[in-house]
Design brief:
elongated, 6-stranded parallel β-sheet, 3 domains, Rossmann fold, 12 helices, 332 residues
């Protein structure tokens, strides 16, 4: 079995001190270019790898970010994670990706795991049942910044990176008004979440300002299956809605599953509009669903920028948002 290369091996082979070898590997300006080249060539030949555990112990910080989400399989979170990972890798960081299963106790276990691994920072989208964020804020004592994203605490002063939830819902409502719709079924997400509350309030408020007197029916669904059931219940009514608004990608999939099972035509029998991460889910259907985009990719880029700014000394609390835009399809 091949012996792992160490700084000591390299220093003995080149008759240099360990400190000189270490500084050469870090491209320190005090070390000559000739010496740096010799050290780098031998390190490459020996397949030298830094002892990251020792570095973490010495600096009390790793080059790893913790990232906690309710579920990794969620398409929006997949997009967010991919965005953060790509940009973090370019800066020399990697991700420790954890899922809470939307369980506050597992979320706390994940948080502890991040602390024990001396992560450089934590990105977290909290569970729908998380009430106390003191354990997150306590990480500041360990010099570990926390960036909340997407599902964020409602009132606490902390770093939040959000989608323009109210703007997105208002844009959807304006699109409905422009099409002269009369009865709208709005299916929102978990009623306990701030994201749901913001979208519900903005959507209902915007519709109420319409001079056409649109009737609004409101329901809540925590899963695509619940959204599917609600859609069927309302679409078999004699006086069924002429439009359905879905609050998210997941809810849209439930709505469309029900629409397809009932063989209803879109937008002939019923019109559809949703808030979505990007065009992936809307483009799966014919016609393409009209949607308001709330980009997980853009949210990830903004979240990482805020994290790096914090690590760079800008430690003041900020709440930043990613703007939304209406994307016309053929479903409305």
């Amino acid at each position: 079995m091949r012996t792992k290369a160490t700084l000591k091996n390299i220093s003995q082979s080149l008759n240099l001190s360990i400190s000189t070898v270490s500084r050469a590997l870090k491209n320190h300006p005090d070390i000559s270019e000739e010496t740096k080249q010799k050290v780098m060539e031998l390190a490459t030949l020996l397949e030298y790898e830094p002892n990251t555990h020792a570095i973490n112990l010495r600096t009390n910080r790793s080059k790893i970010f913790g990232l906690i989400v309710p579920v990794i399989s969620n398409y929006f979170y997949h997009s967010f994670i991919a965005s953060v990972e790509e940009d973090a890798r370019k800066l020399g960081y990697s991700l420790l990706i954890l899922q809470s299963g939307d369980d506050p106790m597992i979320e706390l276990e994940n948080l502890k795991l991040c602390r024990l691994n001396r992560v450089a920072g934590v990105f977290v989208s909290i569970t729908s049942l998380t009430k106390d964020i003191k354990p997150f804020l306590k990480l500041d004592e360990f010099d570990i910044p926390v960036i909340f994203f997407d599902k964020v605490p409602s009132f606490e002063a902390c770093n939040k990176i959000c989608l323009a939830d109210a703007e997105a819902a208002a844009l959807a409502a304006q699109a409905v008004i422009a099409k002269n719709k009369k009865m709208v079924l709005a299916i929102y997400g978990n009623a306990e979440l701030s994201i749901t509350q913001k979208r519900q309030k903005a959507f209902a408020s915007t519709l109420s300002q319409s001079a056409t007197g649109i009737q609004l029916l409101e329901c809540y669904a925590s899963t695509p299956e619940e959204a599917e059931k609600i859609t069927r219940e309302y679409c078999i009514m004699t006086n069924k809605p002429d439009t359905i608004f879905g609050m998210s990608d997941e809810i849209l999939t439930g709505i469309m599953r029900s629409i397809q099972k009932m063989k209803l035509s879109v937008p002939g029998d019923i019109a559809i509009i949703s808030i979505c991460n990007n065009n992936f889910i809307p483009s799966l259907y014919e016609p393409t669903i009209t949607y308001v985009e709330t980009s997980g990719l853009d949210l990830g880029k903004l979240a990482l920028k805020r994290m790096m700014d914090h690590l760079g000394g800008k430690t003041f609390v900020q709440e930043l948002t990613v703007p939304s835009r209406l994307v016309e399809g053929g479903s409305l």
